[in-house]
Write a structure and sequence with these properties.
Blueprint lengths: L12 H10 L11 H14 L4 E5 L2 H10 L6 E5 L4 H4 L4 H6 L3 E4 L9 H10 L9 E8 L10 H13 L3 E6 L2 H8 L14 E5 L9 E5 L8 H7 L8 H11 L3 H20 L6 E2 L7 E7 H9 L5 E2 L15 E7 L6 H15 L1
Parallel strand pairs: 2-3, 2-4, 4-5, 5-6
Antiparallel strand pairs: 1-7, 6-7, 8-9, 9-11, 10-11
Helix pairs in contact: 1-10, 2-10, 8-11, 11-13
Bound molecules: pyridoxal-5'-phosphate.
C-alpha cells in the first residue's frame, strides 16, 4: 500500500532495457553520443518542433538551472504559493539564479490564474533600481494539488505573462500525467500555449533519474550548457541520460506509464469516496489524491502498513474546513501501482472506517 510518492518505485522495464543496451560498447562522453542525439531528436518529434534540450539528474536542478537562464539575480520569479520551487527546493533556485527572488502570487489553493498576475502588478510598484523586477512566471503541470492546467489556461497565463515582459517556465515533473489526463498533444500545453522553457520529468514516471530542460525559443538556451557544467550536472556518461529518455519516449511508452498511474488514481477515487467519512479536497485529474479523513482512520491505516504523507492544510480549497478530528493526506499513484495495491488499501480503509 505504497502511496507516498511516485518516486517510491524504480524505473520501467523498458527504460532499464534501453539503459542495458546503451551500457554496451564505448561512446563519446558528456552527451556527445548517439543515444543522447537520438533522445533529443525524439523530443523534437514528440513536441513537433525544433527545440534545444539538456538532461540533468534532478527536478530541482532542472528547475533552478532553467530559471537561471530566464532571470538576472536582481529579478523576481512569480509562482504559486505552494510551488515546489518555492517550498521544496531549499534555496536552489536562489543559488543557481544568483539570488533572484521567488514571489508567491496566489493563495495556497487552486491553480494559478491570470487574476493572480493582474493583482500582483496592480499592487506592486517598481522603482528601479530599488525594487525587484518580475521577469519570469513559473507554472507547475500537473499543479501542486494534482489539478491539470488545460491548454487554454496555460495559454491565458502565458499571454498575460508575456504581455508584462515575463518569460514562462513550466515545472513538468508530472507533465506526462497532465498530457495523459488531457489526451492532448504535448505541444498543446507547452510551446503552442506559449511556454518558453519546460522541465520535463521522467524520474517520477518510469525513468531512473533523468529530467530534460527544453528550450522552445531560439537562442534562449545559449547559457545553459555553461550553467549546467558549472552546477555539476553535466554527466560524464551522458549516454545513460539519453538512453533513459529514448526508452521512455519511444512508442508512447511515457504516456502509457502516466495513463496507468492516472487510472489507478481514478480507481482509488471511486472506491474511497464511497466510504463514509472520507472526502476529496480536489477533483482527481492526474495521479495525486488529496484526501480528508478522520485522524483516527489515517492513524489506523498507517499502523496497518499503508504509506502516505500527511499534507499541508494551507492547500485546501478556501471554502473547505477540517473538523477537529479530521486530517488531510496525499496519495500518489505511479506507473507501477498495481490493482492489488489499490484494492488492498481501499478494502482496509473500508474495514477500518466501519
Ligand atoms: C512539482 C515537482 N517539481 C519538481 C520535483 C523534482 O524534485 P527532485 O529534485 O526531488 O527531483 C518534484 C518532486 O517531488 C515535484 O513534485
Amino acid at each position: 500500500m505504497y502511496f507516498r510518492s511516485d518516486n517510491q518505485t524504480g524505473a520501467s522495464d523498458r527504460v532499464m532495457e534501453t539503459l542495458a543496451m546503451a551500457n554496451r560498447g564505448t561512446t563519446p562522453g558528456y552527451g556527445d553520443d548517439e543515444w543522447s542525439t537520438r533522445a533529443v531528436d525524439m523530443l523534437k518529434e514528440t513536441f513537433g518542433c525544433d527545440l534545444e534540450a539538456f538532461f540533468v539528474l534532478t527536478g530541482t536542478a532542472a528547475n533552478s538551472l532553467a530559471l537561471s537562464c530566464l532571470v538576472d539575480p536582481w529579478h523576481s520569479i512569480l509562482c504559486h504559493a505552494k510551488a515546489h520551487i518555492l517550498r521544496d527546493e531549499s534555496t536552489a533556485p536562489e543559488f543557481y539564479t544568483g539570488g533572484a527572488r521567488l514571489v508567491p502570487i496566489s493563495g495556497g489553493d487552486g491553480k494559478l490564474e491570470v487574476r493572480h498576475l493582474e493583482h500582483y502588478f496592480r499592487i506592486t510598484e517598481v522603482h528601479a533600481p530599488h525594487n525587484s523586477l518580475a521577469k519570469a512566471l513559473s507554472i507547475t503541470q500537473a499543479a501542486e494539488n494534482g489539478l491539470v492546467y488545460s491548454a487554454g489556461e496555460v495559454a491565458s497565463l502565458c499571454e498575460a505573462a508575456h504581455g508584462r515582459g515575463l518569460s514562462v517556465h513550466m515545472d513538468g515533473a508530472r507533465f506526462a500525467n497532465a498530457v495523459a489526463a488531457l489526451g492532448c498533444m504535448p505541444a498543446d500545453i507547452s510551446w503552442k500555449a506559449g511556454v518558453d522553457v519546460l522541465c520535463l520529468g521522467a524520474t517520477k514516471n518510469g525513468g531512473l533519474a533523468a529530467e530534460a530542460v527544453i528550450f522552445f525559443r531560439k537562442g534562449s538556451a545559449e547559457e545553459f550548457s555553461h550553467r549546467r557544467k558549472r552546477g555539476g550536472h553535466l554527466l560524464s556518461k551522458g549516454r545513460l541520460f539519453g538512453a533513459q529518455f529514448l526508452g521512455w519516449l519511444q512508442d508512447g511508452h511515457w504516456l502509457e506509464l502516466a495513463g496507468h498511474a492516472n487510472g489507478q488514481a481514478a480507481r482509488l477515487f471511486s472506491a474511497l469516496t464511497s466510504i463514509p467519512g472520507i472526502r476529496l479536497a480536489w477533483p482527481v485529474q492526474a495521479n495525486e489524491l488529496f484526501v480528508i479523513l478522520p485522524v483516527r482512520l489515517a492513524e489506523r491505516l498507517l499502523s496497518a502498513g499503508a504509506e502516505f504523507y500527511g499534507w499541508d492544510r494551507g492547500s485546501l480549497p478556501a471554502d473547505t474546513t477540517l473538523a477537529a478530528d479530521e486530517t488531510l493526506i496525499r496519495l500518489v499513484t505511479s506507473f507501477a501501482t498495481s490493482d492489488e495495491n489499490v484494492d488492498r488499501f481501499c478494502a482496509k480503509a473500508k474495514d477500518l472506517a466501519t
